[in-house]
Write a structure and sequence with these properties.
Chain B: Pfam families: PP-binding. Chain B: It comes from Roseicyclus persicicus. Chain B: This is Acyl carrier protein. Chain B: InterPro entries: ACP-like_sf, PP-bd_ACP. The complex is a heterodimer of chains A (417) and B (79). Chain A is built from 8 helices and 21 strands. By secondary structure, chain A is an alpha+beta fold. Chain A has a domain of 211 residues: Chloramphenicol Acetyltransferase (2-Layer Sandwich), CATH 3.30.559.10. In chain A, strands 10, 13, 16, 18, 19, 20 and 21 form a 7-stranded mixed sheet that branches. Chain A has a 5-stranded mixed sheet with strand order 6-1-3-4-17. Chain A has a 3-stranded antiparallel sheet with strand order 2-5-7, with no helix packed on it. Chain B is mainly α and 79 residues long. Chain B has one domain: ACP-like (Non-ribosomal Peptide Synthetase Peptidyl Carrier Protein, Chain A, Orthogonal Bundle), CATH 1.10.1200.10. Chain B is 49% helix and 0% strand. Chain B contains 3 helices and no strands. Classes of the chains: A alpha+beta (417), B mainly alpha (79). Chains A and B meet through helix 4 and helix 6 of A and helix 1 and helix 2 of B.
């Protein structure tokens, strides 16, 4: 079980997408787990052949527990195959080689969030399957209206226990029916555990409290004239079909990505035992508010290699999958800096809490029409206020000022996507 | 005859699968009441374009702010 995101310590296995004998490649999604923040897809980080599934559907597994045995090509089998175990709360040890999504040797090793402050962080790859430039996937189609969304494990349990899925109201992201929902319905009793949304609040509370307890935040703010870029975007979008339109949010994310490349002290993870570990790739986290409450901040992997159009497509895909509860574990753990924007309407500034173990968060208010001095005259201009939250263990005011300046320069420079 | 309100709500709940279509009122504002963000709105506009062939420019987004307004707008544009 890979790291699942800050302060999430366990997940329930709800779907296997491979079986013994299947060949797998690095980056393949092999399983789905339910977490405090909804369903997350588990990728594999080594190529080979699946020899054994050591975890059973329905198992609640701690981070670090083995899920499967995968034998690399040419590698000798370490032990004879055994049948998959019955579901149990405590997975038994698996023979070597165990391929939970473990890190490849390629540097830089970006850390996973630690379950506690004292625990050493395992390492994770910077990007398990880097997308080529502009290869951001098209948004995943949503489920058909009126269709029931439930994991195979939830469906199987419903069939076995005679539970009518159509009578259930899913409590997962996007209304998805979770394994736990079927369990509770089958028992005919209210949930023994807190509802998933309460679980999400617990996860957020743990991560944010740890952040504020351990990261000495400081903040740097600048209000930036975005009139030229917004005018350029509006003109461009007026000529483009909906699929080709670009939102201001994508432009702001790209500015943050480029600023992170220019100021690497803001892009990476802080580890208790190693200090700051800069990341080579910019995996920019994008904060997405969920309608039922709570939020997720999945990362757009290797966004530094993407064009503006690629970032826009990637953001659409992340939002669509966040709504449907189909984010990947790597997206939840390997962000190197996060952008949290208030959208196109609303408050003018936001000073955010850094998402550990990252060391910077870019908070962006909604555009505001303000009197502005341009060439010695006061004129109406649309402006956006950037507030950079930075980790004082890693950076100081001068470094933060360089980031803010780099961001402002990017945002104020209209260019073709 | 196409029921444009039904089409709109169907696409709305594809983009926002956590919204129960039976609870959507004619006057519900898709952003203020139903909490769609700007990315959701773009996804909705793209879905309506794909389904009905109606290209809704950004300046017309207020015309689809509620199911009632959207139904009238889509009927006029698709007809």
């Amino acid at each position: 079980m890979p790291s699942l995101g800050a302060d999430m310590e366990a997940g329930r296995l709800v779907e296997w997408l491979v079986k013994p004998g299947d060949t797998v490649s690095r980056g393949d999604v092999v399983a789905v787990v339910e977490t405090q923040k909804g369903a997350i897809e588990i990728e594999i980080f080594e190529a080979g052949t699946v020899r054994e599934l050591t975890a059973a559907l329905g198992d609640e597994l701690p981070v670090g527990a083995p899920l499967a045995v995968v034998v690399a090509e040419g590698e000798a089998a370490a032990a004879p195959p055994e049948p998959a175990p019955e579901a149990s709360a405590a997975p038994r040890p698996a023979p070597e080689p165990v391929v939970t999504p473990v890190p490849p040797p390629a540097p830089p090793a970006a850390p996973a969030p630690t379950p506690s402050d004292a625990a050493p962080a395992p390492t994770l790859p910077a990007a398990p399957a880097p997308a080529p430039p502009d290869a951001a996937p098209a948004p995943t189609p949503a489920q058909p209206a009126g269709g029931l969304r439930a994991s195979p494990a939830a469906r199987a349990l419903a069939e076995a226990r005679g539970v009518d899925l159509s009578a259930l109201k899913g409590s997962g992201p996007g209304g998805a029916i979770l394994y736990a929902d079927v369990e509770h319905a089958a028992a005919g009793t209210p949930a023994r555990k807190p509802a998933p949304m309460a679980e999400m609040r617990k996860a957020i509370a743990a991560a944010m409290a740890r952040s504020k307890r351990t990261i000495p935040h400081f903040y740097m703010t600048q209000t930036i004239d975005v009139e030229l870029v917004m005018t350029a975007l509006e003109a461009r979008n007026a000529e483009a079909p909906p699929e080709g339109r670009i939102l201001l949010g994508a432009l702001l994310v790209r500015a943050a990505v480029r600023a992170a490349r220019a100021v690497p002290e803001m892009n990476g993870h802080y580890l208790d035992d190693r200090g700051f570990v800069p990341a080579e790739a910019v995996n920019v986290g994008v904060a997405i508010a969920l309608r039922g409450g709570g939020l997720v901040a999945p990362a757009l992997m290797d966004a530094g290699a993407m064009t503006l159009a690629g970032i826009m497509a990637g953001m659409r895909d992340l939002v669509t999958r966040a709504r449907a509860g189909r984010l990947k574990a790597s997206e939840m753990t390997e962000g190197t800096i996060t952008v949290s924007a208030l959208g196109e309407t609303g408050a003018e500034a936001m000073a955010g809490v850094i998402f550990p173990p990252q060391v910077g968060l870019v908070g962006l208010g909604a555009p505001q029409l303000r009197p502005w001095v341009v060439d010695g005259a006061v004129v109406p201009r649309r402006v956006v206020t950037l507030t950079l939250s930075a980790d004082h263990r890693v950076s100081d005011g001068r470094t933060a000022a360089r980031f803010v300046a780099a961001f402002a320069e990017q945002v104020q420079t209209p260019e073709e996507p | 005859m196409t029921d444009y309100r039904a089409v709109f709500v169907e696409e709305l709940t594809r983009v926002a699968p956590d919204i129960d279509p039976s609870t959507v009122g004619d006057g519900d504002h898709i952003q203020d009441d139903l909490a769609l963000d700007s990315m959701d709105v773009l996804n909705l506009v793209a879905a309506l374009h794909a389904r009905l062939g109606v290209d809704i420019p950004e300046r017309d987004y207020p015309e689809i702010a509620t199911p009632a307004r959207a139904a009238a707008y889509l009927a006029a544009r698709a007809g």
